[in-house]
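Continuing the batch. This is chain 6 of the set; chains 1 through 5 are on the previous pages. Same settings as before, nothing changed between runs. Recording input and output for traceability.
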Amino acid sequence: MYKNVVIKGIAIIGLAGIVSSCATWVQLTSAGRLVTVATPAEVTSCTRVGTSTARAISSIAFVERGGTKLQSELIDLARNEAGDMGGNRIVTESPIVNGRQSFGVYRCGN
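Output for chain 6:
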């Protein structure tokens, strides 16, 4: 009985690892597609619209998701929210902590 539980647990963790490394959970909206990622120096003459705090799942079944995939999803979430806010640039303002990251939202000409 114990052996079956261990094997099932290993199978679930392995499947979660495969899913987390392959799946794309976030799709850009039409408004999000118009938003780009910028550096603080690139938004000095822009108007700050607000802040977006994006949150994504950082682990599945106790398996940590890859940092690159998680970062990409957080950026896409922030781009979507920024587009809804009327912004067209986002700037990263915090590191990823527990699957959460903050972005400044800006409206820049051209």
